[in-house]
């Protein structure tokens, strides 16, 4: 059975998780964003923002988690699995932070290929900062640009999801899967 791995990505505060939640409610298998969990675990250890303190360590943890999710999606009995962010997101954020990283980060992106990638654009009207999202809206726009560049670097054709209600955005994605 062919397993279709579908990434929903975009800069911070673009509504990714809300869209993923709607798709999950519609019966799709959806694997959650893991960076919040990594951040929360670091905060429990007294590190307020691990990405800011040690971007490479944070990114290694994300890379491991995203590879694990990729493998989980590959082996899932359902033939379509949505992922809230993909492996190239890790490289995009490191590039955004102007952080050098070992070659195995790029190798992981090349070796673990997704079938479709949906990109949610920056949308100021819905953007909110919180304890795990430290970026301002201008930084979110820059991150979006790095995400788009990273996915294109690894050969992906991105489908941009238009702004609108969460339901309308989920409907758009369903039309193209």
UniProtKB/TrEMBL annotation:
<dbReference type="InterPro" id="IPR038727">
    <property type="entry name" value="NadR/Ttd14_AAA_dom"/>
</dbReference>
<dbReference type="Pfam" id="PF13521">
    <property type="entry name" value="AAA_28"/>
</dbReference>
<dbReference type="InterPro" id="IPR027417">
    <property type="entry name" value="P-loop_NTPase"/>
</dbReference>
<feature type="domain" description="NadR/Ttd14 AAA">
    <location>
        <begin position="5"/>
        <end position="169"/>
    </location>
</feature>
<protein>
    <recommendedName>
        <fullName>NadR/Ttd14 AAA domain-containing protein</fullName>
    </recommendedName>
</protein>
């Amino acid at each position: 059975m062919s397993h279709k791995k579908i990434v929903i990505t975009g800069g911070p505060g673009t509504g990714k998780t809300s869209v993923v939640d709607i798709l999950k409610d519609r019966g799709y298998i959806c694997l959650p964003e893991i960076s919040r969990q990594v951040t929360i675990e670091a905060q429990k250890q007294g590190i307020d923002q691990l990405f800011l303190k040690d971007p490479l360590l944070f990114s290694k943890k994300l890379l491991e988690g995203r590879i694990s999710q990729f493998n989980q999606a590959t082996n899932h009995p359902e033939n379509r699995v949505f992922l809230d962010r993909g492996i190239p997101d890790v490289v995009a954020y490191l590039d955004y932070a102007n952080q050098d990283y070992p070659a195995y980060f790029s190798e992981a992106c090349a070796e673990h290929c997704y079938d479709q990638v949906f990109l949610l654009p920056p949308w100021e009207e819905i953007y909110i900062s919180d304890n795990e999202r430290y970026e301002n809206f201008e930084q979110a726009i820059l991150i979006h640009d790095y995400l788009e560049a990273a996915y294109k670097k690894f050969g992906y054709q991105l489908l941009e999801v238009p702004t609108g209600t969460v339901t309308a955005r989920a409907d758009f994605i369903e039309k193209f899967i």
